[in-house]
């Protein structure tokens, strides 16, 4: 055997998933393919298919991996603290993997991994004293808030298509001074504080905090 022979790293589901997330972060979801993933891993795409029958199976596994990465606060914490931790963890996970948002925002969270995560949210709402119906409705409303926040921060208003005839800064300041002044707080450096404000408003509206 030649002394120049190099030992090839074993191809495992974990290695494939981590490489896929890295590649999606580099080129975006639209450009991602099993062929390009194979190139990144130094193997043929067919080798990946031994572990994941198709791209959908791989994306499904990535959803599970990302959801599982969100830390679940211990049940010893009071319920509102658990809800804050789950919400902040979900936001942080989305910000770590912004290019995966098109999948994560619409994928049904109905695998065993995802159902366990969703159940933690519902358990915290019930532990906070909400009845079954109120907890269910608040659970759905929390999903609206978290998905909407992720969409706005990652792929939202500032990155969307513009009017062909936008209102200029000078006109905005002259005719809509309040809106122009508010724009100072719409930039990315204010996103975290705005998220916390929204989370407080949500929890207060659900009757879970009073101050």
TrEMBL record:
Q: Which GO terms describe its biological process?
A: negative regulation of DNA-templated transcription; response to antibiotic
Residue ranges of DNA binding: 33-52
Record SUPFAM superfamilies: Homeodomain-like (SSF46689), Tetracyclin repressor-like, C-terminal domain (SSF48498)
Among Pfam families, the record links this protein to: TetR_C_1 (PF02909), TetR_N (PF00440)
Chain's role: TetR is the repressor of the tetracycline resistance element; its N-terminal region forms a helix-turn-helix structure and binds DNA. Binding of tetracycline to TetR reduces the repressor affinity for the tetracycline resistance gene (tetA) promoter operator sites.
Q: Which PANTHER family match?
A: HTH-TYPE TRANSCRIPTIONAL REGULATOR RUTR, TRANSCRIPTIONAL REGULATORY PROTEIN
Q: What is this protein called?
A: TetR family transcriptional regulator
């Amino acid at each position: 055997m030649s002394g120049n022979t190099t030992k090839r790293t074993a191809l495992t589901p974990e290695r494939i998933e981590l490489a896929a997330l890295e590649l999606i972060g580099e080129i975006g979801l639209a450009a991602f393919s099993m062929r390009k993933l194979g190139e990144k891993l130094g193997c043929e795409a067919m080798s990946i298919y031994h572990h994941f029958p198709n791209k959908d199976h791989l994306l499904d596994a990535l959803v599970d991996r990302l959801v599982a990465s969100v830390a679940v606060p211990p049940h010893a914490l009071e319920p509102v603290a658990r809800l804050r931790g789950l919400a902040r963890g979900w936001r942080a996970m989305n910000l770590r993997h912004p290019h995966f948002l098109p999948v994560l925002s619409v994928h049904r969270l109905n695998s065993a991994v995802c159902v366990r995560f969703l159940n933690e949210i519902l358990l915290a709402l019930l532990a906070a004293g909400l009845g079954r119906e109120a907890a269910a409705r608040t659970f759905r409303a929390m999903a609206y808030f978290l998905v909407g926040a992720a969409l706005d921060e990652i792929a939202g208003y500032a990155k969307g298509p513009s009017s062909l005839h936008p209102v200029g800064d000078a006109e905005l300041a002259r005719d809509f001074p309040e809106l122009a002044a508010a724009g100072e707080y719409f930039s990315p450096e204010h996103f975290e504080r705005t998220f916390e404000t929204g989370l407080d408003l949500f929890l207060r509206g659900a009757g879970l905090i009073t101050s």
